[in-house]
């Protein structure tokens, strides 16, 4: 069993702006990256994934396929789908 709460896709989709919070999903995990947006090395492009899945974007920007990036993402986990 997981220590994290379960969120619906609708709940995730409702968080797609800096005002409402920026949530994304990755491999079944839900992440609140609101505080990370301003620190992202790739700038505002990160907001393209707001409210949805990272996978299609990270497939295009392979720079994310590194251990240190996944570790960074894990720090923002708030739940699971
Ligand atoms: C670079 C994290 C989402 C586009 C990076 C780097 C990190 C990072 C750590 C630097 C990697 C390195 O050089 O070793 C993240 C995290 C994301 C996220 C934690 C989600 C929570 C996205 C999305 C896009 C994107 C959705 C595109 C739609 C880019 C680009 C770079 C980059 C273009 C290269 C910037 C450069 O070197 O000029 N990201 N990223 N990222 N990211 Fe992201």
Characterise this structure.
The protein is of the alpha+beta class and 81 residues long. The chain has a single domain, classed as Cytochrome b5-like heme/steroid binding domain (Flavocytochrome B2, Chain A, domain 1). The protein is built from three helices and four strands. A four-stranded antiparallel beta sheet has the order 1-2-3-4, with no helix packed on it. β1 and β2 form a beta hairpin. It is globular. Protoporphyrin IX containing FE (HEM) binds at residues 24, 33, 40-42, 45-46, 48-49, 54, 57, 61, 63-64, 66, 69, 72-73.
Summing up helix and strand content along with how strands pair, one would put the structural category as alpha+beta
- SSE string, helices as H and strands as E: HEEEHHE
Poorly predicted tracts of residues: none
Average pLDDT taken over every residue:
96
CATH homologous superfamily identity: Cytochrome b5-like heme/steroid binding domain
Provide the spatial order of strands within the biggest beta sheet.
1-2-3-4
**CATH architectural category:** Roll
């Amino acid at each position: 069993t997981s220590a994290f709460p379960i969120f619906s896709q609708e709940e995730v989709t409702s968080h797609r702006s800096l005002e409402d919070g920026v949530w994304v999903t990755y491999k079944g995990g839900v992440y609140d990256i609101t505080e990370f947006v301003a620190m992202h090395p790739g700038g505002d492009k990160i907001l393209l994934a707001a409210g949805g899945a990272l996978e299609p974007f990270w497939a295009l920007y392979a720079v994310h396929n590194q251990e240190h990036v996944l570790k960074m993402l894990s720090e923002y986990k708030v739940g699971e789908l």
